[in-house]
Amino acid sequence: MATKTSKLTANHWGVGTATVEAGRIVSVGGHHGDPEPSPINDNIPGSLNGRARILRPAVRKSWLEGTPGAVPRGRDGFVEVSWDRALDLIADELNKVRTDHGNESIYAGSYGWSSAGRFHHAQSQLKRFLNTIGGFSYSEGNYSYNAALVMMPYIVGPFRKHVAQATRWSVIAKHTDLVVMFGGMAMRNTQVSDGGIGTHRMRDNLSACAEAGVQFVNISPLRTDTDGFLNAEWRPANPGSDTALMLGLAHVLLSEGLQDDAFLAHYCVGFDRFAEYLTGKTEGVPKTPDWAAAHTGWQAEDIVNLARRMAASRCMITVAAGVQRTDYGEQALWMGVTLAAMLGQIGLPGGGYTVGYGVNGNIGNMERLFRWGTLPQGKNPVSSFIPVAMISEMLMNPGGSFTYRGRKHQFPDARLVWWAGGNPFHHHQNLTRLHDAIQKPDTVIVNDISWTAMARHADIVLPVAAAQERDDFGAGKSDNALVPMHKLVDPPGEARVEYEIFSDLSARMDTDTQFTEGRNADAWLRHIWTQTQAAGAKSGIDLPDWDAFHQGDVIKLPDPSPDQVFLSEFRVDPEANPLPTPSGRIEIFSETLAGFDLPDCKGHASYFPPRDLTAGEGELFMLSGQPKTRLHSQLDNGAYSMSFKVQGREPVLIHPDDAAARGISDGDVVELFNARGRCLAGARVTDEVFEGCVFLWTGAWWDPDFDTPQSRDRHGNPNALTHDLRTSSLSQSPASHSARVCLRRFDGELPEITVHDSPVLYSGTSGDA
Ligand SMILES: Nc1nc2c(c(=O)[nH]1)N[C@H]1C(S)=C(S)[C@@H](COP(=O)(O)OP(=O)(O)OC[C@H]3O[C@@H](n4cnc5c(=O)[nH]c(N)nc54)[C@H](O)[C@@H]3O)O[C@H]1N2
Ligand SMILES: Nc1nc2c(c(=O)[nH]1)N[C@H]1C(S)=C(S)[C@@H](COP(=O)(O)OP(=O)(O)OC[C@H]3O[C@@H](n4cnc5c(=O)[nH]c(N)nc54)[C@H](O)[C@@H]3O)O[C@H]1N2
Ligand SMILES: [Mo]
Question: Domain 611-745: which topology?
């Protein structure tokens, strides 16, 4: 009989207890110390053992044959080769590009979430390796809250402080009367926290708020952006209209004299300049409730009533990250701060504003006590970079210029692109354009577990071990748990641990001494753990040695500031604790931003209508938020993710009236289309979505049929339809929530999903010669 063992693992969605039988993971359950473990664990066994697993190094056929353009990337088959051959080819390509074009022609921004684990972090491993050979062009920012990262420092201070120092939910339960949520607070998203989460606390903490009688207003196109137990009032507005709605609320406050003049005078600068815009003195249009109603779909009297209610209560305004992932997403952030400043409760317990509740399961619940040990990435001598969401732009315009944070920069000439631990054919917008753009470089290398759409666009594909196939430890960026991660099984086929791959490659590049520093993976783990122990000791925490830790259970540390109130020190004494803005105050008007003279971000919060609205792209708004059933595109072929698909397609939520108008029933396959692309999806007809909006979850592996018009995606990836314009020329952030689409029932012959199988593979020895 096969032996059965049970061991610990860690993922971005939490701690798992895995059962292994006969060398295979058969199930992953929750950990006993977690009140609400994530069912995303159920994706692990099926996906890691799935048909799309990459088992051997592979090289794109036409590229290997020396006719790289014969079949475009993404459509070609692959020849499986030996590790030696694959690594020799990579070493040759690296040397060629360095000699002919310099290291800045290596683009290794390699954005993506990869998997949990302090040491085996794909992107860090790749960057550390490339830094030993002279560096690479990199990317700045992320796809999550980039507009906030760039914008908040100008008006309040660094965004990462906002989330680390977010007012705790326990404080809200005690002090707050009313939480007004732009973009809601989706419980499904709080399954996840970057690097891992030891305890899912959100449901308990929000339940305490509900029990204490805190009222919630959910201003979001999706009712389920708050869970039923909160009894939130659901007040949807047109997507992209949050700034207009907030301006309407601000207009009511000002015209009824409900604003806090003392707060605006002591703690803020520039309210008067903003007020001129609000009242129409500048630009000629007063932002009255009637004006706001026309943009948002609200009734003017509801705007008046909500504004009065907010002024009469201890009120917390929240803006979800999703809201800044829209056209001009910076403005909703700035307007949220402006509105909260007018109410004058910033820095008071349970009042003010927060950006980012719900981005992960820890924000407002927990913060890390000290910095965990980490694999140093070394120094990158190359200074050329792009804002992360300009990938297609960069590939299409080598040497072209772009604006970012008020300055002009130049795109590198990316000849070699290397991705490890991310999937741009999941995360980027307008995928048919990315498909065209990725044809440009000379060489594309991808490390991944499975044959994702990105791996299919590579010239050289390296099969890597998954988190469950290597020893490590998990410790989330904003979490308090240290989790032993066990190698549960061997990697399948010839897949290898990335550290070993880069060690071998660095030997070929003569940089192995720098890359390994004489350590193997086990020695690194012990080294990083020793650093963690030392950091713990400084905070008065005594951690066991590596062996005792790794053989033991999860270690949980306390929240360093369980009564945290965001900006309370500033409120108490703004002279002694100024904000890190030019004025030291909240900048309702920013001279710096005004000085950049940008068309799409002025000196104060301003409303710009979403772009697709005027472009006539389609009659419905398409939202594409994070899926409940997986993390982004990871393990999409696993059991939990698959169990929600409709006839194999990703579900799209459609309002009953929008469905009826198009003869669509629940369970039908539908086609979404616009000027950029099209995809199939499975209809879920529900009144949980605002009329006029459809909601298609992100993360279905892109499965284009190149023989159909616009290379129709068979599976339901929203980025077949989204535009890849950025939020603004200030931050160049992705604006994936702003898309317009058309919708119809699909009555044609249903194509098979092909992306959950491997691409065409030619067996290897010919390529090995
Ligand atoms: N339309 C639309 N698009 C969006 C969003 C949206 O709301 N709407 N959301 C955006 C957001 S917020 C984000 S953060 C991005 C997420 O975008 P990504 O982070 O790129 O998405 P993931 O699916 O997590 O990709 C991680 C990849 O790493 C691989 N992987 C896992 N472990 C390892 C490992 O150890 N080594 C290697 N080499 N690979 C590994 C996985 O198989 C997977 O292919 O998507 C963005 N895209
Ligand atoms: N299960 C699961 N959890 C996750 C992730 C995952 O992939 N799976 N990903 C994690 C990551 S990387 C991130 S960044 C966070 C993202 O966290 P968020 O950015 O908060 O999540 P989203 O789902 O993109 O958006 C939240 C909601 O905003 C609403 N929304 C969209 N546009 C607008 C608008 O214009 N106005 C208003 N008022 N509302 C709007 C949508 O209804 C959407 O449900 O989630 C994290 N959590
Ligand atoms: Mo994200």
Answer: Barwin-like endoglucanases (2.40.40)
